[in-house]
Structures are given as C-alpha cells and as structure tokens.
Design a protein that fits this description.
single chain; mainly beta; nine-stranded antiparallel beta sheet; six-stranded antiparallel beta sheet; globular
Length: 383
C-alpha cells in the first residue's frame, strides 16, 4: 500500500550534502519503477551500492510446462511437493504465463546469500511460519496469513523463527491495491475492505557498517546471477519515499456480506497486470432466509481461476486438502460440487481461508505439479 514512509537518518533536502560521522558522504540511491515517474524511495548508503568485485551465472531457470495442454478442471496437492531447501532459488513452479507465476516452497534452511528479484514484483503468502524479512529498507516481521509484497529490485533475505510454507505470486507488472478502493488523492476510501492501518512497513533499520565479500543473487532473464559486493548490502542509514516492502495479513481483510450472494470481486485484495488476487476469509453467510450461500455455476470467459486452499474448508468444494491448488480454466463452466449448494442453505457462516488468483491469459502447468495432480478431480461433479 503506497503511503509515504521514512526510517533512519536523512538530510533536510533531497540530493543535499549529507556527511557521515567520519566526515565522508553518505551515498544516495534512488530506487523506483517506471524510470523517474513511478513510485520511488531515496536511500542513503554507508558505502557505494555499485562496489561489485565479481559476477557469475549460477544457473538458468528453465520452467518446463506439460507437453500437451489439457482443457480440464485440475487439482494439485501441493503439500506433497518436495521443494529445495532454500526460500528463493528452490521454489517449485506450479502455474505460470507471461503475466504471473505461482510457485510453492517449504524451506528447510535460510539462504546464505542476499536476494533480489529484478524480473518481477512478489506477493509471498505465508501459509505457515514466522520470521523476519530483512531488506535494505529494514526489518519486517511476518506471521501466518501475511501477504509480503516485495516490489522488484529490493534486496532482501528471510530469517525464520518457525518452519515456513510459502505460496509465491510473481508478477511481471507492478502490484498494487485496486484503484476502486482509492480516491483521487490515493487514500483508501471508507468502502475499501481495509485501511492504511492494516498495512505494515519495515519498522527497524539495522545499519551494517561491514567490509568483506557478500554474495547477492539476482533473478533476471530467467536465470540466477551472483554478484559479490565488497560491503554488507544492508548499509542504509536512512530512507524515505513510496517504494518498499510491506505486509498485509489476510485476517485483516474485512469481508463483505449481502442479503444474497456477492460475486468474487468483493474479495479482491491486490491487482497486477493481467491478474487479480482475492482473499476468501471466515465470515457470515448471506442473511436472507431464502438465500443460497454457495456460489452459482459460472463460466470463466477470458479468465482462468486458481484457488489456493489455506485450510481444509471451502463452501463449494469437497475433496480438497490443506495446500491444494485448483485450476478452473477459461472455456468450461465450473461451480459447486454435488451436494454443496444444498448443504449451504440455512448455514450461518463459513471458516474458509483461501487465496484466489484470476488471470486474463491462459495458465500453463509446470511439469513438477503433474506429480501431485488429482486426476479424478474433473469427475468430482458427477455426483
């Protein structure tokens, strides 16, 4: 959520002489997107951020899709996927297109390097675990249910205090809150399902004044490249602006309820180029005595629908599991499975928890996801 933030020491004016305690200058770095016209922040480094002593390509990221696409309802039991040990380089791609990619990872260790995604913004949904997202903007603590939004180019590293499981939504374009939630000044309006108070920015800036060799891994052009810096990358003494990582917890989303069923756009949380992200949270059901709380059948025209189930309950599904991902593609209708519509009548609430991603271009299925696919899911509407 783009609001002005400030942390640490900064001078009175931008691009003004700003001395360190030993008399040398702090080194400015302007970081932002869309050149000099998009949101940006101005950072003040102890050392030059350009001090690189070595560069090497680690490996290419060859995301392989299934050879022949199948127009069918799909179900992937991602909790059964075995990812690599690290939280950044070892993610397993499940679904992707040129706009967005969905991956999962269950890290068993912290990265020994610092990481920068120079290819896309990231929304990291914390299904399990706690810890700290360290970055050049400071420390941001996270907990289960958090969406960690990390704009592209921001150097960061995860520190865990409990075992974690992440869903990663990687966007080729920038990620932001829906425009209809904001007024002409950028402020969230009263009808928005959250307020500025619900978004958390880094709150603790730890300045590392250290020389040495520090590896930084950058994702760019479908490969991982390692740069060696001659100083600790978290050497920022202060910054201000509109470009930084932030967190929003799914349990702070305020669900909307009507007399009769409201469509999924009322659950929208974020949007990017070519996709939207929605949050399905515990909430009361529709309150008219004649209402049908379960959603109606609908056809995805010009849209693929993906649901990530963060618990085992969902009003219109059965047979899904914690960590399941379902794909309902453009071209065929989908809806409640047999018995779910009837079962919903007269119910007063749901405790479901799920993240939905709707894309406006078709998604490809990663080959690793085929190993955990429930191939009988397409028949689950047969009764």
């Amino acid at each position: 959520m783009l609001t002005y933030q400030r942390l640490g020491e900064i001078p009175r004016k931008r691009h003004q002489v700003f001395h360190q305690s030993h008399g040398g200058l702090f080194y400015e770095e302007l970081m932002g997107n869309k050149g000099f016209t998009g949101p940006s922040s101005l950072l003040y480094h102890v050392y030059r951020p350009t001090e690189v002593s070595a560069v090497r390509v680690i490996r290419r990221l060859d995301w392989n899709a299934e050879r022949e696409r199948c127009l069918s309802h799909r179900h992937f039991r991602t909790h059964a996927l075995t990812s690599g040990p690290g939280p950044t380089a070892d993610r397993v791609p499940v679904l992707f297109n040129f706009d967005v990619a969905l991956s999962v990872v269950q890290p068993t260790r912290e990265d020994e390097y610092f990481y920068r995604n120079a290819e896309g913004d990231e929304i990291v949904y914390v299904t399990e675990g706690e810890g700290v997202l360290e970055s050049i903007f400071g420390n941001l603590r996270f907990r289960p249910g958090d969406y960690l939004v990390i704009p592209r180019g921001i150097l960061h590293r995860y520190r865990f205090t409990a075992p974690c499981r992440f869903l990663i939504i990687e966007s080729a374009g920038d990620v932001h809150v829906p425009k209809r939630y904001r007024n002409e000044y950028g402020q969230l309006i009263e009808m928005a399902p959250y307020s500025e108070r619900d978004f958390r920015a880094p709150s603790e800036l730890v300045v590392h004044d250290e020389r040495g060799e520090f590896p930084v891994v950058v994702k760019k052009d479908y490969q991982l490249v390692e740069y060696t810096l001659q100083h600790h990358p978290f050497d920022v003494a202060g910054w201000d602006g509109y470009y930084y990582p932030y967190a929003f917890n799914i349990h702070d989303f305020e669900p909307r309820v009507g007399r009769f069923h409201l469509p999924p756009p009322v659950h929208q949380t974020f949007e990017g180029n070519g996709f939207v992200v929605c949050s399905f949270c515990p909430r009361p059901y529709d309150f008219d005595p004649e209402s049908v709380p379960a959603p109606y059948n609908h056809s995805n025209v010009m849209s693929d629908e993906v649901l990530y189930y963060a618990n085992t309950e969902f009003m219109s599904r059965k047979g899904i599991e914690y960590g399941s991902i379902t794909l309902h593609p453009d071209g065929i209708p989908h809806g409640p499975q047999p018995g779910r519509t009837e079962d919903s009548i007269g119910k007063t609430r749901t405790d479901e928890l799920a993240v939905m991603v709707d894309t406006f271009r078709p998604l490809l299925v990663g080959v690793d996801a085929l190993e955990v696919e429930d191939r009988e899911y397409m028949r689950s509407w047969l009764g």
